[in-house]
Structures are given as C-alpha cells and as structure tokens.
Specification:
The protein is mostly helical. The chain has helices spanning 2-20, 31-43, 50-63, 67-85, 92-100.
C-alpha cells in the first residue's frame, strides 16, 4: 500500500511541476499549488531536492505580486541549493536576482492573484 501512495504522490508532484512551469496566459499555476508541491516533496522524503519546490514557490508568489513571500522562498531555494550543489549551483544566480529585486524579475506579476 505504501508504494501505491508514494506513486500517487510522485504523479501529483509531476502534474504540479508541469502546471507551475506553464507560463501561458491560461496557466493555472498558483502559490497554493506551489505550497502543495513543497508538502509532497516532504512527504516523499525529498528534502535534498527542496530547492526545486522552493523555487517554484518563489516564482509562483512573484508571479502574483507577493514580493515578501517570493523573497522568502527564493532565499529558501538558495539555501537548499547551496546545501545540495554549493554556492555556484546552477540556479543560484536566479535566486539571488529574485531576492535582490523581486519586482524587476521577469516573473513579477506574470499571473493574476488566484
């Protein structure tokens, strides 16, 4: 039974990431979905990859114009990435840019608040 639950969570993780990575006008990506993604990563024991989930959350919050939460999750993404890949991790520059000035990041207010 545990394997089936895990499979379902992994499928949901995949669906949520696809949704959050969709930047078309009719995208249904949202902060709520990003928070759910973080929960699923934790339930699956994927703490070593939380930089990915935190990154989606940072972008989701920035896309609805919530600079404070975007900043919070960008910092968490950078911390987790630093732990995983070191200070020169592949996405580190993006999280530094978003943290420094969320309103000048390409994702700022990309989506309407949902």
């Amino acid at each position: 039974m545990a394997g089936q639950s895990s499979d379902l969570r992994l499928e949901e993780i995949d669906r949520l990431q696809q949704t959050l990575n969709d930047w078309n006008e009719d995208s249904t990506g949202s902060p709520k979905k990003a928070e759910k993604l973080i929960q699923l990563y934790r339930k699956e024991g994927l703490e070593g990859f939380l930089d990915i989930a935190y990154g989606y959350a940072a972008l989701a919050y920035n896309a609805v114009g919530d600079a404070a939460k975007a900043n919070k999750f960008a910092k968490l993404a950078a911390e987790a990435l630093n732990f995983k890949e070191g200070p020169n991790g592949r996405d580190m520059e993006m999280w530094k840019e978003l943290t420094a000035n969320p309103k000048h990041h390409w994702s700022w207010r990309w989506r309407k608040r949902t």
